[in-house]
Every structure is written in C-alpha cells, then in structure tokens.
Amino acid sequence: MTRRRIARVTFAFAAAALGVLTRPAGADSVADFYRGRNVTVVIGFSAGGGYDLYGRLLARHLGKHIPGQPNVVPQNREGAGSERATLYLYNAAPKDGSVIGTFSRSMAVAPLLASAPFDATKFSWLGSISSDVSVCMIWHTSPIKTFDDMLAKPFTVGGLGKDADPDIMAMVLRNIFGAKLKLVSGYPGTNDGTLAMERGEVNGMCGISWSTAKARHSDWMKSGKVSLPVQFGLRKEADIAHVPAVIDLAKGEEQIRMIRLILAGQAMARPYAAPPGIPDDRRRALIAAFDATMKDPEFLADAEKLQADVSPVSAGEIDRLLADVYATPKDIIAKAAMAIVN
Predict the structure, then answer these.
(1) Can you tell me whether residue 277 is helix, strand or coil?
(2) Which of the four pLDDT bands, split at 50, 70 and 90, describes residue 134?
(3) Residue span of the structural domain in which 122 resides
(4) Domain end: 249, 264, 279, which one?
(5) C-alpha dist (Å) from residue 116 to 82, 184, 249, 287
(6) Would you give the DSSP letter of residue 146?
(7) Are residues 150 and 50 located together in one domain of the fold?
(8) Among 38, 105, 104, which residue's Cα sits nearest to residue 70?
C-alpha cells in the first residue's frame, strides 16, 4: 500500500473516531428515540367535536409512519377555545418530538388580533388534514333562516372562548355587519355548543367547520332541523354554493382585507404542530410521517367512513401563509382586532 493510500485510510479512521468522540452523549437516531415510546396528540377541545374526531383519526394511523413506530395516544386538553392546549404546546410540553397537538385554526392569528402570548410562526408545523370553510348553524325553532334575518331579528349563539372560531365569527357578524346577536360563550367544545342549541339554550352556533357539520350533523340538515344562513372562508364551499359567503358580503376594500385576515386560519382547518425548537431531525420525521399518513389508504378509508374531509395542507404552505399574514399592515390588524372584541 502506498504512503498516500495509507495516509488516506489513517485519516478516514481518525475522522470516524473523532465523529464518535464528538457525538453528543446519549444521542439516538430518530427511530431509536421513538421505538417503544408514546407520542401524545393533544386535542384542544372536548371529546365528540370535530377537532376531536380528526385528532383521534390521525392518532390511529400516524404511528406506523414515524420511524420506530411509537404508540400514538390522543389526549383532550380543552379550555378557553383551545388556548389552554396552545399555550401548553408552546411553553410547557416536552420539546423532544414526543408531543404534538391540534387547536383552533384561529389560534394562528390570535397573537395579531387578540395579543395572545405566543408567536404562531415559531411552532414546528406538521401540516393540516384539510382546508375548510365554517358555517352558522341555526336551530329550526329560531326565526333566523337567512343572513338578512340575522340583521333584522335578535338571536343567541354559543361560543367556546375569545380566540375560538364560534366567538370570532359571531363578532364578525355583529361588529362588521350589524347582526343582532348575543354571544353566550364558555362551552368546552363544538359538540357541547350544538347540544346547547338542541336543548334550546341558544338559537345556534357560528364558526362550525363545514367538515364537522357534514360528519356530525348531516341528519339535521337532511331533516331540516337546522338552517345555514352564511358561510365563512377565503373560498366558497361548493357543497353549499347557495349559502352566501361573508367575504362576498363585505363592503369596500378595507372590510375585505379585515375579513381576509380574520379568516386566514380557515385555510388550515385541521392544523397540527409540535412545540417550537424540537430537534430538527425529529421535526423532519414528523412532517414526513404526517405527509405519508395523508396518502395512507387505510387512513383515507377510515376518514371516508367518518365523512371526514381530507384535503391536506403541507407544513411549508402553513409556514408561507403565516409569514404573509404576519406581514399585514398594522392599521388593518388594529381594525380587524377591534372587530372581534365582544
């Protein structure tokens, strides 16, 4: 063996040895980290609602796509329209990739509109199971049947908390359009709010995802037990094209920009994120696992049985959406923030 060859071999062995010596103590591969471990999916609402349905659906299938195939466990952590779960993920959850969560899509813009104590751009976003629009669902015993009725007749709607969709959509209707509504907030989840509507505690609930309405309450719609006076989204839902979209009812460029900001979260209807600052290799593995789950035939068949819409939004798309939203001019942000104050 020539001296040059010997030198190259010696250097390679030395470099390999140095790599072993400088590797952080206890460093594991992604698969080694997850093998035999539980991964928690924190669900920011109570059992029985749309976020719970999607969270448990994801939990049943995600684990087989994560290296090491950990057990994935759903955990409800409701409160304050999912702000409790959001702050737990942001501040207190382990930052090792063992906890992910789902919370109200409106939380993404809550730091801009409601001074929520976190920065949504810093989450380790994994993606969203779908994009969506939301609807107002009004019980059949109410005099409210159309959007014009909302402007002319008093009625009550249920809410979950100041940063949750039902509360925000109610304030958009009242403060921007002049709807004669009273908000009764504090229900733990949409399932509790719709039960309150059924019991007659409130006339209805706004800000219910169309995907949830179809999956949970298609029988109500078929039997005429509810009316849908208006829908909320950056796009109009083709299934309910006859229902007016709030963005089309806006008057003037300023109102349109305010509503676009408020409704930005609709584009990431079922978002999932890990805490800020998790190890980058585990973040990449979780994103890849989420993307693979969205294409998994067993996941898709399960979703179809549940009538759960699957129209995935990637982690990169969410990051770009939030970068754009967080660049909104301050005067528009201020006016939009005032529009959703109860």
Answers:
(1) coil
(2) very high
(3) 31-131+267-334
(4) 264
(5) 12, 21, 28, 26
(6) S
(7) no
(8) 38
